[in-house]
Hints:
Layout: H1 2-8, E1 9-20, E2 23-34, E3 38-43, H2 49-56, E4 64-69, E5 72-74, H3 79-84, E6 87-90, H4 102-106, E7 113-116, E8 119-122, H5 124-136, H6 154-166, E9 172-176, H7 184-199, E10 203-207, H8 211-217, E11 220-225, E12 228-234, H9 240-248, E13 266-275, E14 279-287, E15 291-296, H10 302-309, E16 317-322, E17 325-326, H11 332-338, E18 340-343, H12 347-350, H13 358-363, H14 379-393, H15 409-422, E19 427-431, H16 439-454, E20 458-462, H17 466-472, E21 475-480, E22 483-489, H18 495-502
Parallel strand pairs: 3-10, 3-11, 6-9, 9-10, 15-20, 15-21, 18-19, 19-20
Antiparallel strand pairs: 1-2, 1-4, 4-5, 7-8, 11-12, 13-14, 13-16, 16-17, 21-22
The structure holds adenosine-5'-triphosphate (ATP) and magnesium ion (MG).
Amino acid sequence: MVAEDDDRVLLSLTGITKSFPGVKALQDVSLEVRKGEVLALVGENGAGKSTLIKILSGLYRKDSGEIRVGGKIVEIDGTKHAKELGISTIFQEPTLAPHLTAVQNVYLGREIVTSVLGLQTMNEKAMFQEMEKLYRKFFPTVEDLHRPVSELDALKNRVIEIVKALSDQASVVIMDEPTAALAEHEREVLFDFIRLLKAQGVSIIYVSHHLRELFLLADRFSVMRDGRNVATVNKEDTNIDQLVSMMVGREISNHIVKEQVRIGKELLRVSDLNRRGVLRDINFHVRQGEIVGIAGLAGSGRTETVRAVVGADPISSGTVAVEGRQLRIRSPRDAIKGGIGLLPENRKLQGALVELSVSHNITMAAINRVLSKKLVLKKRQESQIAEDYVKRLGIKTPSVNQKVRFLSGGNQQKVILAKWLFTQPKVLIFDEPTQGIDVGAKVEVYNLIAEFVRNGGAVLIVSSELPELMGLSDRIYVMHKGKFVHEFSRKEATEENIMLYASGGHE
Ligand SMILES: Nc1ncnc2c1ncn2[C@@H]1O[C@H](COP(=O)(O)OP(=O)(O)OP(=O)(O)O)[C@@H](O)[C@H]1O
Ligand SMILES: [Mg+2]
């Protein structure tokens, strides 16, 4: 019996500990990964999930504890060694070399070479053909694979990282928030891959805040809290509510209720906005006290719309007005001056200056509010403001002086959220506001949005989470192929009829 049980264990961790200055990231973590299972690793932002994964993938060294692969004790001493041991990782942060093409990235360090007249040359064609098969399942256009990845959008970068890990032929594939930037149908392709890997006996460690999604995939759940592994349970023996209370150590309500606030004058009006080939005749408005949602499939133009509004992308024609005054917006800076802030998606790439402290990041978009008349930084005041946001958003950091680089993924996102709240705009636009944020913090984000409109602001939200969008919004616009195709009132909106318009089923 015992021997049989041991056979099933591919990877085991015992008593793993890891500290950073001022932070005990992991304390006595023990975990077993069985052959051919999907083990979900869940926990609040800063619980230690990514740290554990970085140890397994050779990026960090553990302080103490024991790791066994196939029963043998190993000291993983680098990323190359981890790969040799059969452990391949899709990290939470992008890791591709921006100047290299997709093919070059995927085959970095294990290029396919052929010998031509005794000369070793790289066989780009063979690498391309091998990769094309995987990539085509996500996107039909494979020309992308020959361009530097810096020229491709975040979604394609994500897919290339996934393809890279899948083509490693690993026995353990670790995925840290792999679906963060993926659209619904791409998620499904990824899930099919995961099931395929599983059927081949590959083990998957899957980190996500998306509990509903995890219930489709996982065999077991391992819950982390404050650097400890508090429980490991079979999927059949648990449910979302129980997992959430194990993660946060208290009961929280997952329910979104939009409170009724007075709807006032029109704050934002966008008229006849066009961007050739991308957006067509976009017209909408948001009033004081209103939360307005934009629904649509990935690629329908939601992000492009909000980026065009704040001048992050060029437009062919159209106008943007705040409180009836037409703005001249050529860059996001003009938008901020005009009273519009955009909290972008993929905040890792676009929002934070990771080498700066938490407090500088929070105040930088409205720096004049913490400068004296002689333009000297009022340090004490800046720290106080930062500490206030850290407390309200539950940002986990040893102090406001910590560099943002050292915060966990979700906590970096909260810092950027604080930055935009501090600019005190009239109109705040959120693109996927709760992506990568844990269940407890989501509720805090909803509360902050509610507080913002209660105080007379207007909010525009893009979200792929329909329950979230429907729970928050007074009205919802639906996009399809670069156009606004329908507007729903709060009462009319259901998941089914939003999806109908989003998928073009109304045409
Ligand atoms: N290189 C580092 N230097 C200092 N502190 C770090 C470093 N890496 C992680 N930490 C700290 O260790 C703790 C655990 O972080 P980790 O990134 O493992 O969390 P996580 O569970 O992955 O969270 P999230 O869901 O937000 O991604 C956090 O308090 C984080 O600030
Ligand atoms: Mg993480």
